[in-house]
Specification:
Length: about 425
């Protein structure tokens, strides 16, 4: 049996890889517009970072990590997310002693031992941002506006943004007790996971995906009613700012991040119609995280978008089609003796930023034209006896079939002109 890619992983093959490039470029461009700079961290970290930085009570840490020992017996883990790595890097490089706030974006593969299905993989890709150093609700609003702009930049205009506030540890304490009191009589009706959550972290019962658990706890108290004055004001300000700038959202009592260092704003963004895994991104404020991993007391907020799901949404919304993929000019060699001339022409074109290629399979002239057509080259440049002797090239427009002669001296401006004309005709 031939060896296949491991379960839950896949290859990104051409031409689909071009769509990935387009997606990444557009997201990076929005991040640039908002003043973010890229951070790259290792694909693996010491396991302890995630145990402390993501939290041992989470599904990620308790069930989904790819953890292994290296040859020196150190426990390492393939990163399941990037926020903990960013916080670790911030502390390691004392980034907080420079200009605040710190605005970072990242992009890359993450690893979780999850049950594979459509939109859920074991190696998947996230594009995310983190802001460290500001506790202002205006940052929360800006981060959310940027996330919505990222979706718009890839043609996704319809979204559902779910928003909640999980308060601070002190408002959560009073809420926790109210929730425990409410759930206690129904505890036996909860799924086995939630029975354990009830003991360890009852807030997480709220975001259990099992409908039976929701049923059992109907009428549960709302976290919103337990927010302290500061947290209530913070959430109010975020909502007002979003409304004022035309960003629609739904308040969602069930959206919680159960760990102590998550504070205030929590959110998730969904694209309707892409199946069960409709959450394309999520995030929130984590004012306690940096301190929890032995750093300074520095507030933070961030989100991560799942690129597989964004691509799925782009496919379904037909916003993927228009990306040009491949070469712009094909150089067809009519006589084998002109191979070197063809190579010089190719190098000249490429140096001028024009994507160009030729045949390397000894195809005859007619077969070269067919090949150029299959590659989707809009222009074919013919190099034959006549052309070489008189110092020009014949350029054939593969759509209109029109042919023109361009002198070698005017090659680059001539081709650029023809490419532009062709693009205008296609538009
Ligand atoms: P999280 O870090 O769990 O909040 O995830 C943020 C986003 O990453 C989600 O909204 C998904 O779009 C994406 N994501 C998370 N886990 C997976 C997975 N196993 N496969 C594909 N995408 C994922």
């Amino acid at each position: 049996m031939p060896i296949k890619a491991p379960r839950g992983t896949y290859d990104i093959m051409p031409p689909v890889s071009r769509s990935w490039q387009v997606l990444e470029e557009r997201l990076k461009e929005v991040a640039r517009l908002y003043g973010y700079q890229e951070i790259r961290t290792p694909l693996f970290e010491y396991t302890e970072l995630f145990e402390r930085g993501v939290g041992e009570g989470t599904d990620i840490v308790s069930k989904e990590m790819y953890t292994f020992y290296d040859k020196s017996g150190r426990s390492l883990t393939l990163r399941p997310e990037m926020t903990a790595s960013c916080a670790r890097a911030l502390i390691e490089h004392s980034a907080h002693t420079g200009l605040l706030p710190i605005k970072w974006f990242y992009y890359g593969p993450m690893f979780r031992y999850d049950r594979p299905q459509s939109g859920r993989y074991r190696q998947f890709h996230q594009f995310g941002v983190e802001v460290f150093g500001s506790a202002s609700p205006m940052v929360d609003a800006e981060v959310l506006m940027m996330m919505v702009q990222m979706l718009k930049a890839i043609g996704l205009k319809e979204y559902r943004l779910h928003l909640n506030s999980v308060g601070c540890p002190s408002c959560r304490d009073s809420y926790r007790q109210a929730l425990l009191d409410h759930i206690k009589p129904f505890c036996k009706e909860l799924c086995p996971d939630c029975q354990q959550r009830y003991q360890q972290n009852p807030l997480r019962v709220l975001d259990c995906k099992n409908p039976g658990c929701h049923q059992a706890i109907t009428g549960y108290p709302r976290l919103l009613d337990h927010l302290c004055a500061d947290c209530a004001r913070h959430y109010q300000r975020v909502q007002e700012t979003l409304k004022g700038h035309g960003i629609s959202f739904l308040h969602d009592d069930q959206l919680v991040r159960g760990l102590d260092y998550y504070t205030n704003t929590a959110f998730e963004i969904h694209i309707p119609g892409i199946g069960a895994q409709s959450a394309v991104g999520g995030g929130g404020r984590y004012n306690g995280l940096v301190k929890a991993i032995d750093g300074p007391d520095l507030p933070g907020i961030g989100f991560a978008l799942g690129l597989e799901r964004l691509l799925l949404a782009m496919q379904q919304n037909h916003t993927l089609n228009q990306h040009r993929n491949g070469i712009e000019v094909f150089v067809a060699v009519m006589e084998a003796q002109y191979e070197d001339i063809a190579i010089s022409i190719l190098q000249e074109l490429r140096a001028a930023g024009i994507a160009a290629d030729k045949d390397y399979m000894d195809r005859k002239a007619r077969a070269q034209m067919k090949y150029a057509d299959k590659l989707g080259a809009p222009l074919v440049l013919l190099v034959g006896d006549e052309e070489v002797k008189a110092g020009f090239v014949t350029v054939r427009n593969m759509t209109s079939k029109r042919q023109v002669a361009i002198s070698r001296a005017d090659l680059i401006p001539g081709i650029k002109n023809l490419l532009q004309q062709n693009e205008e005709e296609q538009a």
